[in-house]
Specification:
heterodimer; A: 365 residues; alpha+beta; Rossmann fold; OB fold (Dihydrolipoamide Acetyltransferase, E2P); five-stranded antiparallel β-sheet; B: 296 residues; MetI-like fold
Chain lengths: 365, 296
């Protein structure tokens, strides 16, 4: 078990990158604390798997250093790094039994026979595989195979971290939930550092204590699920997390008032200094945008109301822009005309996509 | 799901039946016809029952002795070339590049021997192995080795075996290469993480994943080598003596050389049945082990 530090790390497929664009993973500094449960979240092609492979040593980064507990492992091969990795498709050694599969990493490392036996039995118990230890691994279902892949990582007592690369992709939906709770359970019992790569926000938010959101090679935000929801650091995070995603509207700002196509919106904070020439946008999650009968607020046209059971989400149009908003139980939507009211505390301002923190308004309560 | 019953489906397979009947069954029946009759020419035939078969399968008769000699010779040849070509083909496949410009290059190089007609292969080696003008034969005899494929039994066998290995190892290598290419990278990455040695990667990942193509490769090479005719016929003509007279060569000698149509027909039938039986055994073994791997 170890603390993993990435220092000024960057990676490009091309060994001699000429421009920033060629980097699949843009320069970043990051610390993964010992025993943390992390999720690396992002759409396909955002560089999350590359980042994972750099940590495991399958890929050597173009620049920067990887430290395991202050030990520089940047140039060490995978087998010298004490890393366990579970891949998208379950990898089992077809001709071996489940027990032999679990013993494989230990046998390769010349661990004494008795020690192997004891350790395999222990891990099989943990993963609920004891009953099938003598079966051929190829006869098992996908989720059992994925448990074997995980088990091969866990048998080594000295693993620095367990890396999971979209491990539930090929698992049946009803088994996903079970395997996910097995993972959480193992994380709690073994106090292992786990990094879980996924493009599924539900998986990320339920598994991880901390979620690292990647977009286009950049790490755009690292935080707890609440932080990602309440204060998205980037409009991308707002879009990507939450369902439906955050509404983003171009606007102009004067002090503590934003104007969307001339219609004023009150803000909870003032923004006296905004980067000149930047694209200024307003972000508000549908949860904090409430639909009212036509009156005060932004005049909108209602296009559709989706009843999700717990909440009702209205798809509305504001000056030709599509937005999503919550419809409180008390509000009856009749016809197209309605008004939209934002909760000022939950309205964020973005300059070129990045969150701008304003100043408290003098004299405000 | 409901099974659809429609007898018209037979109409769809009818052309195949007709085709197979004309291309295989009917010609084979003429052979069966010959095998139970005797002729003294003049297109007059006499019923002989299972006489030819009895003689053929009796090792003490002249025909039987000749048949079994050729049969063991052919089996020995198949066994030797399988033992050489399979490991060699796997080895070559493992050495071929996985990506880059080298792939196309090595594929073309590997495919070249497969494109050469059989009798040309025989001619190439017949000249190549000559001790007076052939590079191979001349080099060997200059080294002081007693090599002459027209006189020495061992020389003749070695030449035919090297020729077959040269001609057909590519096929095994290409099939194995296809099998190797189908292994996802994740397997190799997992093996690296598990600290597997090169040998362990081969035995636990590559060999099991090549099983299917290897089964096909062995079947193809076995059938082909068991029926080998052209190359040894061109190279040695079955000699020296009868040392390289394989079943197919013997069959032609019997049918066209001696014009013993009845004996040759009986031999053809038995030859065909042996190949069918061996292929069936092989197929059964391969498919049963395949069935075991299906999830229960």
């Amino acid at each position: 078990m170890a603390k993993i530090v990435l220092e000024k790390l960057a990676d490009a497929y091309n060994a001699q990158p000429r421009s920033e664009r060629e980097f699949a993973v843009k320069e970043l500094d990051m610390t993964w604390e010992q025993g943390g449960a992390y999720a690396l979240l992002g759409p396909s092609g955002c560089g999350k798997t590359t980042l994972l492979n750099i940590i495991s040593g399958l890929v050597t980064a173009t620049r920067g250093r990887v430290l395991f507990d202050q030990r520089d492992v940047t140039l060490l091969p995978t087998e010298a790094r004490n890393i366990a990795q579970v891949f998208q498709f379950p990898v089992v050694y077809d001709t071996l039994t489940v027990g032999e599969n679990l013993a494989f990493p230990l046998r390769n490392r010349k661990v004494p026979r008795d020690a192997i036996k004891a350790r395999v039995a222990e891990i099989a118990r943990l993963l609920d595989l004891s009953a099938v230890l003598d079966r051929k691994a190829r006869n098992l279902t996908a989720d059992s195979k994925q448990k074997i892949s995980l088990g091969r990582g866990l048998v080594r007592a000295d693993v620095a971290a367990i890396l999971l690369d979209e491990p539930l992709t090929v698992i049946d939906p009803h088994l996903k939930w079970r395997l996910r709770s097995t993972l959480k359970d193992i994380h709690r019992r073994l106090n292992a550092t786990m990094i879980y790569v996924t493009h599924d926000q539900t998986e990320a938010l339920t598994f991880a204590d901390k979620v690292v959101v990647m977009h286009d090679g950049y790490v755009v935000q690292t935080g707890t699920p609440e932080e990602l929801f309440n204060r998205p650091a980037h409009t991308f995070v707002g879009h990507f997390i939450g369902s439906p995603g955050m509404n983003v509207l171009p606007c102009t700002i004067e002090g503590a008032t934003a104007r969307i196509d001339g219609v004023p919106v009150a803000l909870a904070r003032a923004y006296p200094v905004l980067p000149a020439g930047a694209r200024i946008e307003l972000g508000v999650r549908p949860e904090f945008a409430t639909l009212r009968a036509r009156g005060a607020g932004l005049p909108v046209r209602v296009r559709r109301v989706d009843d999700l059971g717990r909440v009702r989400i209205a798809r509305v149009e504001l000056m030709g822009r599509a937005l999503a908003a919550t419809v409180p139980d008390s509000v009856e939507v009749g016809g197209e005309e309605a008004s939209l009211v934002f909760d000022p505390a939950c309205v964020h301002v973005y300059a070129d996509g990045h969150l701008v923190s304003g100043e408290a308004i003098a004299g405000a309560r | 799901m409901n099974k659809i019953q429609d007898q018209r489906a037979w109409l769809l397979v009818l052309p195949v039946f007709a085709l197979v009947a004309f291309s295989a069954v009917i010609p084979l029946m003429t052979v069966v016809n010959y095998s139970v009759q005797d002729t003294f020419g003049n297109n007059q035939f006499f019923w002989n029952g299972i006489g030819w078969y009895q003689e053929l399968l009796d090792p003490k008769s002249q025909l039987g002795e000749r048949f079994f000699d050729a049969l063991w010779r052919t089996l020995l040849f198949s066994a030797i070339i399988l033992l050489i070509e399979i490991p060699l083909g796997i080895g070559v496949a493992l050495c071929m590049p996985r990506d880059g410009i080298g792939v196309a290059f090595s594929l073309v190089i590997m495919a070249l021997p497969l494109l050469i007609p059989w009798n040309v292969v025989g001619t190439i080696w017949q000249i190549f192995a000559r001790t007076d003008i052939g590079l191979f034969g001349y080099a060997l005899s200059r080294l002081g080795l007693d090599y002459n494929y027209t006189l020495g039994i061992l020389s003749a066998w070695i030449t035919i075996i090297i020729m077959d290995v040269w001609h057909w190892t590519s096929l095994i290598a290409l099939l194995c290469y296809a099998g190797l290419k189908s292994i996802p990278d994740a397997y190799y990455q997992a093996a690296r993480i598990d600290g597997a040695s090169r040998w362990a990667v081969f035995t636990t990942i590559q060999l099991p994943k090549m099983r299917r193509v290897l089964a096909i490769a062995i079947l193809l090479r076995f059938m082909d080598s068991f029926m080998i005719y052209t190359e040894p016929f061109v190279l040695t003509g079955g000699g020296p003596g009868n040392a390289t007279t394989f079943l197919s060569i013997d069959l032609v000698k019997l049918a066209l050389g001696q014009f013993d149509l009845g004996k040759a027909a009986a031999m053809s039938i038995v030859y065909t049945l042996i190949i069918l039986a061996l292929c069936w055994v092989f197929w059964t073994v391969a498919t049963t082990s395949e069935a075991e791997r299906r999830p229960t």
